């Protein structure tokens, strides 16, 4: 396993070194989850002056983990806490953009787009033009609950079928970032990393006995000496972990 973990780290590091600008105008969008925390640490090693941005509300489940990450890296994480009026305004701007590109259902994609909207808005205010995300492992490494009952034999085939979902997620995030002129960098979605994950044995993706998923990312986090609280954290979708979904009226998402 150690060999595969080191290979994965090298792929991610090389991609980031290639994509990141030499000047200090980049941000990393972090949530305190294992995916974005791994990316945050890799980017921090390349450029310690990078900005860390996160979205939260008063009900956010992410805040304790963000404090752990902040302490571990000794690096401030700027927290964006949008008010209800701003969330409603963002929703009105994003709905026609998503509908124009046939991104449905809004109940799923709109809250995530709103989250990216505020992160990109903050990046723009800080005069940044690049943002690195942790999008991808939930499909590539069986992070979603829908993979729980898939047998090891069928897992890779199911993930391969779901790659179109990643394309849709990437389009949604890119459309949102373009509003602010932000170039998104998605290390986990690079061709080399996707190909690497598709060839991995199921044991690097989920463990049916322990019910743990995204095994590879957790192993990478351990290799990078990230705190145990982070690499053991269970999956929690952005719209729920930030508390953003509670700020949105259900009728607005129909």
- Structural shape: globular
* Count of individual helical segments: 13
CATH domain class: Alpha Beta
Distance between the termini: 45 Å
Main sheet attributes: strand count, strand direction, barrel closure: 5 strands, parallel
What do we call the CATH homologous superfamily? HUPs
**Which spans of ≥5 residues are poorly predicted at pLDDT below 50?**
none
Number of strands: 7
| N-to-C order of helices and strands | HEHEHEHHEHHHEHEEHHHH
- CATH architecture assignment name: 3-Layer(aba) Sandwich
Mean pLDDT: 89
Helix content: 40-55%
Percent of sequence in beta strands = 5-15%
Radius of gyration: 17 Å
Query: Please, how many domains?
Result: 1
Briefly note the CATH topology name.
Rossmann fold
Strand order, sheet with most strands: 3-2-1-4-5
Which structural class is indicated by helix and strand composition?
alpha/beta
How is the topology of this model organized?
Blueprint (H helix, E strand, L loop, with lengths): L1 H18 L6 E4 L4 H13 L4 E5 L7 H11 L3 E4 L3 H17 L5 H20 L4 E3 L4 H4 L11 H10 L1 H16 L4 E3 L5 H8 L7 E2 L4 E2 L1 H9 L4 H4 L6 H4 L2 H4 L7
Parallel strand pairs: 1-2, 1-4, 2-3, 4-5
Antiparallel strand pairs: 6-7
State the gist of this model.
By secondary structure, the protein is of the alpha/beta class. Helices cover 54% and strands 9% of the residues. The radius of gyration is 17 Å and the shape is globular.
């Amino acid at each position: 396993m150690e060999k595969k973990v080191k290979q994965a780290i090298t792929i991610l590091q090389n991609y980031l070194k290639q994509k990141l600008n030499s000047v200090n105008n980049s941000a990393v969008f972090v949530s305190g989850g294992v995916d974005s925390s791994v990316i945050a640490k890799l980017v921090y090693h390349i450029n310690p002056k990078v900005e860390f941005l996160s979205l939260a509300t008063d009900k956010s489940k992410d805040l304790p983990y963000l404090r752990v990450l902040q302490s571990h890296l000794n690096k401030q994480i700027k927290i964006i806490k949008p008010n209800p009026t701003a969330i409603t305004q963002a929703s009105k701007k994003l709905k026609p953009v998503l509908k124009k590109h046939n991104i449905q259902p809004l109940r799923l994609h709109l809250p995530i787009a709103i989250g990216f909207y505020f992160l990109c808005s903050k990046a723009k205010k800080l005069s940044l033009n690049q943002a690195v995300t942790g999008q991808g492992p939930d499909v590539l490494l069986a992070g979603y609950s829908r993979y729980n009952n898939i047998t090891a034999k069928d897992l890779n085939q199911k993930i391969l079928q779901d790659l179109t979902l990643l394309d849709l997620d990437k389009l949604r995030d890119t459309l949102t970032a373009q509003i602010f002129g932000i170039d998104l960098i998605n290390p986990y979605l690079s061709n080399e990393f996707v190909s690497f994950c598709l060839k991995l044995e199921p044991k690097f993706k989920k463990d049916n006995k322990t019910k743990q998923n995204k095994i590879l990312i957790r192993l990478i986090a351990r290799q990078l000496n990230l705190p145990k609280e982070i690499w053991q954290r269970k999956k929690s979708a952005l719209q729920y972990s930030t508390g953003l979904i509670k700020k949105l009226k259900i009728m607005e998402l129909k």
